Amino acid sequence: MSTMQRTDGHRPGSERSVGELVALATAQVSQLVREEMQLAKMEMAEKGRRAGLGGGLLGGAAMMTLFAVGAGVTAAIAGLSVVWPVWLSALVVMAALFVVAGLMAYLGREEVRRATPAKPERAIRGVHDDLEEIRTRVRR
After folding, report:
1. How far apart are CA 38 and CA 43, in angstroms?
2. pLDDT tens-digit profile of 11-55?
3. 86 and 77 in contact (C-beta within 8 Å)?
4. Would you say the C-alpha torsion 54, 60, 65, 66 has a positive or negative sign?
5. Handedness of CA 54, 56, 62, 64 (dihedral sign)
6. Rg (Cα) of the chain, in Å, rounded?
7. What angle, 0 to 180 degrees and rounded to 10, lies between the N-to-C axes of helices 86-115 and 18-80?
8. Distance CA 85, CA 78 (A)
9. Closest CA to 87 of 96, 100, 78
10. What's phi and psi for 116, nearest 5 deg?
11. Could you give the CA distance from residue 27 to residue 10 in angstroms, rounded to a whole number?
12. Measured between alpha carbons, how far is 58 from 60 in angstroms, rounded to an integer?
């Protein structure tokens, strides 16, 4: 005879009742859910670390771009200073940058104006129309 015992408490040759099977299934599902939640937490932590690193790298790229634009502006001033005095070259480049900034601000403001109010107006109107149609059909 074997003296081996199973870890689930079930003895060989004995049948389990429905209640025991339901209890065992409930315990197993509960354990599975806990393990899946633990896995999800670990996965989200890893993704959070990667997102943080990616955000830092994007911030660094933005700073390098800002420095590159500054170097380009300096080069434009230096190039114009061959023809004009340095102060006039800087003034012309500054004026051009203000024109570009003003144009971008105007276009950005128009886009924000089109996006407000921040609610799905067409979807809301569609729901109202659907409800009105349902009311009309119910009244008939």
Report:
1. 9
2. 665 688 888 988 888 898 888 888 998 888 899 989 899 999 999
3. yes
4. positive
5. negative
6. 35
7. 150
8. 10
9. 78
10. -105, 150
11. 15
12. 5
Q: Which two three-digit tokens encode residue 10?
A: 């079930």
Determine which helix (DSSP H) or strand (DSSP E) holds 10, and give its type and residue range.
none
Give me 68's structure tokens. Answer: 């590159």
Residue length, the chain?
A: 140
Distance linking the first and last C-alpha atoms of the chain: 80
For 88, other C-beta atoms within 10 Å of its C-beta total 13
Q: For tokens 């989200």, what's the residue?
A: 44
Reported as a single tens digit per residue, the pLDDT across 90-115 is: 999 999 999 999 999 999 999 999 88
Cα-based distances in Å from 77 to 81, 89, 103, 137? 6, 5, 21, 72
Which tokens hold the place of 118? 């921040």
